Amino acid sequence: MDRGVWASWYDLAEDGAQDYIDWLHGSYLPQLTASPGIAWAAHYKIEGGGEGMTHVQNKIISYTDEASLGTGTQYVMLIGAASPHMFFQSNAAWRPENRDAKAQEMLGRRTELRTAILAEEERINGPEYDKRAPGGTPGPAIQFGNFRMKEYEDEMMLGSWYAQYRFPFMARMPGSISTRKYLAASGWIKHAILYEFTSLEARLKNFEEPHEGLALNEKEWTGKIVRTTLHAPGSPSIGTRIWPPIGEHEQ
C-alpha cells in the first residue's frame, strides 16, 4: 500500500548540484526506502511539455501570487508511504528535525522549496499498468498538477469532471500507466493529480496534443475546469524520472 505521498518541489544552484544529486541517489533515497512504512521514492527532473502545454501555462492557467510559497520548478521528489500519517510521526528519520548533519547540509542546498503531504483519493490504472515499477514507484514520465479551486462551489464540478471524463479517458489511453488523485493533508494546495506515462513522447502524442489541448477552448468541459483552478508555481510539473533508474520492463 502507498496511499500517502510527501512531495517536494525545488530548485538547485548549478554549483554543487551534481554533488547533491549523487548523494541523494546514492545514499539518502536508498536509505529512506529501507525505512519502515516507506514504499518507494522517486526523483524527477522537470523538463516541461510541448507547445500546447506551454501556451496553457502561460496564457490560461492562473497561478497564486502568495509571496511565502516556494517557487521551485526544476525538480520534484516524491516519497510514497503506506499512509500519509507516516510523515507526521515525531520520531521519523525523514522529518527535518531528525536528520543527521550530512542530510541537513545537503538538503539545505535546495532553494525555493515547497512541500505537501498528500492522501490518495482515487487511482485509475491505464493500459500500460504492467510496466509499473516494483513497489508502486511512479512511471518513467509524469505530469503532476497541484492546485486549489478559486471558488469552493466549483469542487463538485471538478470531482464530476474527473469521475465522468478524465479518469475514463486515462483508463484507456495508450502510454498511460496510472493516474492518482490526491487531497492534501498538509501544504498550500488542496488537490494534486499525478499522471504516469511510459515516456514523455507517449504523453505528448496521446495526452497533450489530443486531450490537454481542450483546455484552450473555454467552451469545452476541460477548458472550463482549468479556468476555475488556482495553481502552485510551475504546475503542472512535467518531467522524467532520474531515480530510481528506468528499468527495461518499464520501456
Compute the CA-based radius of gyration.
Answer: 17 Å
Instruction: Show unreliable segments.
Output: none
Q: How would you classify the helix and strand content by structural class?
A: alpha+beta
What is the total domain count?
1
Look at the structure and give the CATH class. Alpha Beta
Order of helices and strands: EHEHEEHEEHEEHHEE
| Spatial sequence of strands, sheet with the most strands | 1-4-2-10-6-8-7-5
- The dominant shape is globular
CATH level 3 topology: Alpha-Beta Plaits
The CATH architecture assignment turns out to be: 2-Layer Sandwich
Share in helix: 25-40%
DSSP helical segment count: 6
Q: What's the story with the biggest beta sheet? A: 8 strands, antiparallel, barrel
The total count of strands amounts to 10
Separation of termini? 24 Å
* Average pLDDT for all residues: 93
**Strand coverage percent:** 25-35%
Task: Write a brief caption for the model.
By secondary structure, this protein is an alpha+beta fold.
Question: Any overview of this molecule?
Answer:
- The chain is of the alpha+beta class and 251 residues long.
- It has a single domain (4-244), classed as 2-Layer Sandwich (Alpha-Beta Plaits).
- Helix content is 27%, strand content 32%.
- It contains six helices and ten strands.
- The chain has an eight-stranded antiparallel beta barrel.
- A hairpin with a 4-residue loop joins β7 (176-186) and β8 (191-197).
- The longest helix has 18 residues, at 155-172.
- The mean pLDDT is 93.
